[in-house]
Amino acid sequence: MDPKLRRMAASLLSLLLLLEGGMFSSSSSPSGLLEKVFQHLDLHQDEFVQMLKEWVAIESDSVQPVPRLRQELFRMMAVAADTLQRLGATVDSMDMGSQQLPDGQILPIPPVILAELGNDPKKATVCFYGHLDVQPAERGDGWLTDPYALTEVDGKLYGRGATDNKGPVLAWINAVSTFRALYQDLPVNIKFIIEGMEEAGSVGLEELVEKEKNRFFSGVDYIVISDNLWVSRKKPAITYGTRGNSYFTVEVKCRDQDFHSGTFGGILNEPMADLVALLGSLVDSSGHILIPGIYDQVAPLTEEEIHMYKAIDLDLEEYRNSSQVEKFLFDTKEEILMHLWRYPSLSIHGIEGAFDDPGAKTVIPGRVIGKFSIRLVPHMNLSVVEKQVTQHLQDVFSKRNSSNQMAVSMTLGLRPWIANINDNQYLAAKRAIETVFGTEPDMIRDGSTIPIARLFQEIIHKSVVMIPLGAVDDGEHSQNEKINRWNYIEGSKLFAAFFLELAKLHE
Ligand SMILES: *[C@@H]1O[C@H](CO)[C@@H](O)[C@H](O)[C@H]1NC(C)=O
Ligand SMILES: *[C@@H]1O[C@H](CO)[C@@H](O)[C@H](O)[C@H]1NC(C)=O
Ligand SMILES: *[C@@H]1O[C@H](CO)[C@@H](O)[C@H](O)[C@H]1NC(C)=O
């Protein structure tokens, strides 16, 4: 045989073997097991949807501070604890005490579930975080169906919490229960941390994680969060970073009371004029932040990143249409995503104390507070940013020779999160996605701040990955929230395949 032909034949043969190993092999091999798992999830999908229906039916709204809804939250956590117990997990419902609201009302905080299944020291241990509370929803808000009665239309399962976050939590449970149903050993040890206050700021969670660091979390190798969305309708994604945020107020004061412009206009340094100049000095019309040094610590763009951005499935026209914006600052998909995810941005939010009612009131506000924030990216440093912003505003203010007083303060500081995409569990997630969906995932970040990932990474010092299951149009937090039946079932398969891939890497 011609050597070239032989090489081709050899590579064809190895390709076939690879395919067989990956998808079509006999039931005795690990991938035969995967085949059975997939079959089980397909055959029983109506039962999995029914379970989601039962969970969605519980009005576990943590946002409205109402005793009846708190009871629903407690019921939700009890149902979840029971489900996990029936899977054979050891379940602790951690008492989180109560909270006092600004109006003096005291409400109990639903327990956080810490559960574990398997503790074989030879296996990897993966901890799944999820939440079972939801945003408020009422039929009258513009829902086409009852938000608490899961309703299927054209393969879309409409209901509050369907995608955020009950569907993904159940997908993980479905994956585990399938191994159980098939009398198969779980390939990994599994832990669950499930809370009921995520939509209300995860009250008490950080303290709990800190307290359990050396107990519940001690053997954990990997942490998985599935609480965001793809950027596509069809193409799955892995999320490896989120932006942080630093929120500033700048106060300019002449006196506490307002003035009349007929009586004082013309003889004052007006606070609003100072403030408008200060706010106007922050960012130019191309979106570039004008604070000296602010870009110094931004991580340089790498070749690898450029390739990742190129591969992402984002329909710009659809994105523009759905956001009802005619023109963005940037014209290409890559530039738009980079400026949402890997570059900082500065937004001006509002002015406290300024006149903002309809009509023509001739007031000179005596004291005004401007509010703006900077979304932070790796490797920006909060305390350095605070110094740069303060210095810049002081310079601009002093050049105005104003007789007013100015005070700058950083009122919120949340650091960005970025993971190492070469960690084992990123590799496992990528392989699992390729097996289930037949495509490489979009490697994405989130432009908003999701404190939970950073919290786990910082306290537990273990690799964190976000594996979203929902499509870009799922409408989390909005009316007619849904998860596609396809995403829910394929997502369950994805988690099952992920367990097996993790186990392979751990061998
Ligand atoms: C965007 O909107 C325009 C005008 O309404 C429409 O013609 C076009 O098909 C839409 N494109 C997408 C991808 O939705
Ligand atoms: C941020 O910068 C300050 C001052 O330069 C330094 O002391 C601190 O260690 C830095 N923090 C981090 C997390 O790098
Ligand atoms: C502020 O005062 C300095 C020194 O008196 C002067 O040179 C400068 O022109 C003044 N700036 C403004 C904006 O009035």
Automatic annotation (TrEMBL):
Binds 2 manganese ions per subunit. Residues 1-25 form the signal peptide. The keyword Transferase does not apply. This is Beta-Ala-His dipeptidase. The active site is at D133, E198 (proton acceptor). Mn(2+) 1 binds at D164, E199, H477. Belongs to the peptidase M20A family. GO terms for molecular function: carboxypeptidase activity; metal ion binding; metallodipeptidase activity. Its cofactor is Mn(2+). GO terms for biological process: proteolysis; regulation of protein metabolic process. It comes from Carlito syrichta. Mn(2+) 2 binds at H131, D164, D227. Residues 241-398 form the Peptidase M20 dimerisation domain. Homodimer. Pfam families: M20_dimer (PF07687), Peptidase_M20 (PF01546). GO terms for cellular component: cytosol. The record marks H260 as: Important for catalytic activity. PANTHER family: BETA-ALA-HIS DIPEPTIDASE (PTHR43270:SF1).
